[in-house]
Specification:
elongated; mainly alpha; homodimer
Chain lengths: 199, 199
């Protein structure tokens, strides 16, 4: 293992990373998630390093570009949300698993206000992330929709991608989650899914 | 009637406007609506005047600020959409009138992409328009919702304002209407309204 390998970022997953370097990377991503949510994606790297218990030099070595850190946080949150789908499907019935996953996804979108602005900034560093989002969350939701439709709990003609993007749009503006409006309207969409199953 | 009264804009509705001046104002608003939809709200005033068959000097006299023209177009479209509600209620049953009105409203939102950017530009000239929008479309939709709920066709616990803003958010991004995605998702919301009436 060379020193070079230790400085690799998660953007190059094929390369081996020393265990202590990986711990620092994980701590920085976890810290960035917290700091971004509290202060936005333009928060100083010194704050993120302090939160992670890591020196600023180390933070800078792993994430020399802020966009690398934003990308890493975004991917990790997408991955966690996608992985929640089979976990919920194992624990709950198909309709309940779907409802709970949409609630989980709504929470993910709700903490993404700062990230969303970065993602839509036109910075080419973020160009691949919408595809990453759809490639991971699309199949996760599709599987839940198919199971719930198979159980006769919802209609079977709604595309996962339509629903993902629509829920994101409903939840995106600041304040709508705090007011409960987004949750009410997402619940109305889910009732729309149930309506066709009933008739 | 003084010359001053003839040059009044619709922003001062309490003042008398000579019939020929009003014809010019109406023609300019109608032309602006077409030109804004085709070329955006930054389209040259010369294009709007030409479309209206009015001299540029006249156009400038009535709408010295572009924001006056944007405001006039927006208000007229809000008024027309609000007035469609009682017209549809007179012609169709409560559920059908609601569906058709939402479709009409979706069309209004769809042509508002350029206006939306102007409205959200922070220009104080547009500060009163969101309130105008809600004050006119809120009661229009409320009446339709109450009639449909009274007829047992939909649930009665959804606020008109929630629905107005959510449909606007679903329909706002460019391309979603062309792809049919917005229509499918708005239809799903309406089915959500029907679901609670059924159970």
């Amino acid at each position: 293992v060379t020193e070079d390998a230790a400085t690799v970022t998660p953007a190059q997953p094929g390369r081996r990373v020393r265990a202590d370097a990986q711990r620092n990377i994980d701590a920085l991503i976890a810290a960035a998630k917290v700091v971004f949510a509290a202060s936005g994606v333009d928060a100083p790297l010194t704050d993120i390093a302090a939160q992670a218990g890591v020196g600023v030099g180390t933070a800078y070595r792993h994430f020399s570009q802020r966009s690398d850190l934003v990308t890493a946080v975004f991917r990790q949150e997408v991955d966690a949300c996608a992985q929640a789908a089979p976990a919920l499907a194992a624990e709950y019935g198909p309709g309940e698993a779907l409802t709970r996953w949409i609630d989980r996804y709504t929470g993910f979108i709700a903490t993404k206000h700062g990230l969303a602005a970065a993602l839509h900034s036109g910075d080419p560093a973020f160009a691949a992330l919408p595809a990453y989002f759809l490639a991971h969350l699309g199949p996760a939701l599709s599987t839940l929709l198919a199971a719930a439709a198979g159980a006769g709990e919802i209609r079977g003609d709604i595309a996962a991608e339509d629903l993902l993007l629509t829920v994101a749009r409903i939840c995106a503006p600041a304040g709508v989650l705090e007011s409960g409006q987004a949750q009410r309207m997402v619940a109305l969409l889910l009732d729309g899914l149930r309506y066709r199953a009933v008739t």
